[in-house]
TrEMBL record:
The keyword Cell membrane applies. CDD domains: MFS_KgtP. The chain crosses the membrane at residues 21-42, 54-75, 87-109, 115-136, 157-176, 188-207, 240-258, 278-295, 307-326, 332-356, 368-393, 399-417. Belongs to the major facilitator superfamily. Metabolite:H+ Symporter (MHS) family (TC 2.A.1.6) family. It comes from Brevibacillus choshinensis. May be a proton symporter involved in the uptake of osmolytes such as proline and glycine betaine. It is found in: Cell membrane. Residues 16-423 form the Major facilitator superfamily (MFS) profile domain. InterPro entries: H+-coupled_symporters, MFS, MFS_dom, MFS_sugar_transport-like, MFS_trans_sf, Sugar_transporter_CS. Keywords: Cell membrane, Membrane, Symport, Transmembrane, Transmembrane helix, Transport. This is Putative proline/betaine transporter.
Length: 436
C-alpha cells in the first residue's frame, strides 16, 4: 500500500467514525435531555406534591425507558447482523427523533390528566428501544472500522460522543436558564430542548445514510449471514455473554451515578443552586470527554485489562468516601473536584468497554452479542440507579446508596480479574478490516 493509499484509507476511517459518532451524539443528547430537565418538567406531568416525590416519578419513567433497551438491542442487533450496521444505525436515529417530538408536544397533567404521564411513558419506551439498538451497533461499527492497532483509541469516541450528547443537553439548559426565568422554564421552556433533539436527529440522518458499510459485514459469507443475529448463534458463546454482563455491572451503575444522579444529588443533598450545578456538570463532563481518547490510546499500548482493574479497585475503595465528603461540601469548587475524581476513575471502564465487548464476538453476532447482554445489565442496574438513590433518600437512608454503588463495582472487579486480555484474543478479523 502506497503512502497516498494509506492517507486515503485514514481519511475514510476518520470520516466514517465521525459520521457514526455524530449520530451517536444526537441519540444520547435526546436520551439525556430527559434527565437534565426533569427538575423543571416533573411537576408538569404529575400532580402537585413533594418535589422529591415528583422527581421519583420521573426517575421511575427514566428506568422504564431502560426496560425497552434489551428489546431494542435484541431487535436492532439482529437487524444489524443481518442487514448491516449502517441500516440499523439509520433506523435507530429515526425512532429516537419520534420519541423526542412526542415529549415536546405532550400536554401537561393539568390539561389532560393521567394521559400526560402515560404518553410520557410511551415516548420513553420508544427512546429506550432506539438507544438499546444504538449501543451495540455503534460499538460494533466503530470497532470494525478502526485499524487493529488503534481500536481502543477510535472506539473510545463512542463515549466521547455519548458524554458530548449530555454536555450539549447541559449547554442548552444553561442557555435557557440565562434567557428564561424559573416560571417560564417550568411552564414551557423545558419543551425547547426536545424540539432541538428531534430536529437534530433528522439533520444527522443524512450523515448516517452516507456512511460506508463495515467491510467485515460486507465480506461476511452467505452461510454465516443465514445464521447471523440469532440467539441460537449467540448462545454458542456463553463465556463471552457472561463476561459482558460482569464487566458492565459496576461500570454502568457508576457511570449513571456520576453523570445522571449526581446533578440531582448536588441540588437536593448538597444544597447547591441549579445553575451552579449545571456549570459544574458541564465543565466536569467536558474534561471527562477529552480524556476518553487518551485512555483508549493507552489501552492500545498496555492492554484493556489494566484499565478495567484500575477502575474496579479505585471505584470499590473510593466511592463511599467521595460521596460522604460531597455531602458536606457546600462549596461548588469542592463538589467539582470530587465529581472529577469519580469521573477519572470511571474512565478506566468507559474509554474501552465498547471495544472489549466487540473483541469477544465474531462478525455474524457481534452487534447482538455486544448489545443484548449489555442492555439487560444496564436495564436492571444502570437504569434503576437513580431510582434506587432517590428511593433511599426518601426513606432517610441515602448513604446506603453509596455502598450499593461500591458493591456493584466490586462484583465487576472480580470479572475483570478473571477475564483475559481481549486485545490479544480479539475475534475482530483484522484481515477483512483495515489490518495491522
Amino acid at each position: 500500500m502506497t503512502l497516498s493509499d494509506e492517507r486515503r484509507q485514514s481519511r475514510r476511517i476518520t470520516s466514517n467514525i465521525f459520521k457514526g459518532s455524530m449520530g451517536n451524539l444526537i441519540e444520547w443528547y435526546d436520551w439525556y435531555v430527559y434527565s437534565a430537565f426533569a427538575v423543571y418538567f416533573s411537576e408538569e406531568f404529575f400532580p402537585k406534591g413533594d418535589p422529591t416525590s415528583q422527581l421519583l416519578n420521573t426517575a421511575a419513567i427514566f428506568a422504564v425507558g431502560f426496560l425497552m433497551r434489551p428489546i431494542g438491542s435484541l431487535l436492532m442487533g439482529q437487524y444489524a447482523d443481518r442487514r448491516g450496521r449502517r441500516a440499523a444505525l439509520t433506523l435507530s436515529i429515526l425512532i429516537m427523533a419520534g420519541g423526542s417530538l412526542i415529549i415536546a408536544c405532550t400536554p401537561s397533567y393539568n390539561s389532560i390528566g393521567v394521559l400526560s404521564p402515560i404518553i410520557l411513558v410511551i415516548a420513553r419506551l420508544l427512546q429506550g428501544l432506539s438507544l438499546g439498538g444504538e449501543y451495540g451497533t455503534s460499538a460494533t461499527y466503530l470497532s470494525e472500522m478502526a485499524s487493529s492497532g488503534r481500536r481502543g483509541f477510535y472506539s473510545s469516541f463512542q463515549y466521547v460522543t455519548l458524554v458530548a450528547g449530555q454536555m450539549v443537553a447541559l449547554g442548552v439548559q444553561i442557555i435557557l436558564q440565562v434567557l428564561l426565568n424559573e416560571e417560564a422554564m417550568t411552564a414551557w421552556g423545558w419543551r425547547i430542548p426536545f424540539v432541538i433533539g428531534a430536529l437534530g436527529a433528522l439533520a444527522v440522518l443524512w450523515l448516517r445514510t452516507s456512511m460506508d458499510e463495515s467491510e467485515q459485514f460486507a465480506k461476511m459469507g452467505s452461510e454465516k449471514k443465514k445464521k447471523a443475529g440469532t440467539l441460537e448463534a449467540l448462545m454458542q458463546y456463553p463465556k463471552a455473554v457472561f463476561t459482558v454482563v460482569g464487566l458492565t455491572l459496576g461500570g454502568t451503575v457508576a457511570f449513571y451515578t456520576y453523570t445522571t444522579y449526581l446533578q440531582k444529588f448536588m441540588v437536593n443533598t448538597v444544597g447547591l443552586d441549579k445553575k451552579t450545578v449545571s456549570w459544574i456538570n458541564f465543565i466536569a463532563l467536558l474534561i471527562f470527554a477529552l480524556i476518553q481518547p487518551l485512555a483508549g490510546s493507552l489501552s492500545d499500548r498496555i492492554g484493556r485489562r489494566p484499565l478495567l482493574l484500575t477502575f474496579g479497585i479505585f471505584g470499590t475503595l473510593l466511592t463511599v468516601p467521595l460521596f460522604l465528603l460531597m455531602e458536606g461540601a457546600h462549596s461548588p469548587v469542592v463538589a467539582f473536584v470530587l465529581m472529577m475524581v469519580g469521573l477519572i476513575i470511571i474512565t478506566g471502564y468507559t474509554s474501552i468497554n465498547a471495544v472489549v465487548k466487540a473483541e469477544l464476538f465474531p462478525t455474524e453476532i457481534r452487534a447482538l452479542g455486544v448489545g443484548f447482554p449489555y442492555s439487560l445489565t444496564v436495564a436492571i442496574f444502570g437504569g434503576t440507579a437513580e431510582f434506587v438513590a432517590l428511593w433511599l433518600k426518601s426513606a432517610g437512608a441515602e448513604s446506603l446508596f453509596y455502598f450499593y454503588v461500591s458493591l456493584c463495582i466490586l462484583i465487576s472487579l472480580f470479572a475483570y480479574w478473571r477475564m483475559g486480555e481481549s486485545s490479544k484474543v480479539s475475534k475482530i478479523d483484522a484481515g477483512t478490516g483495515h489490518g495491522k
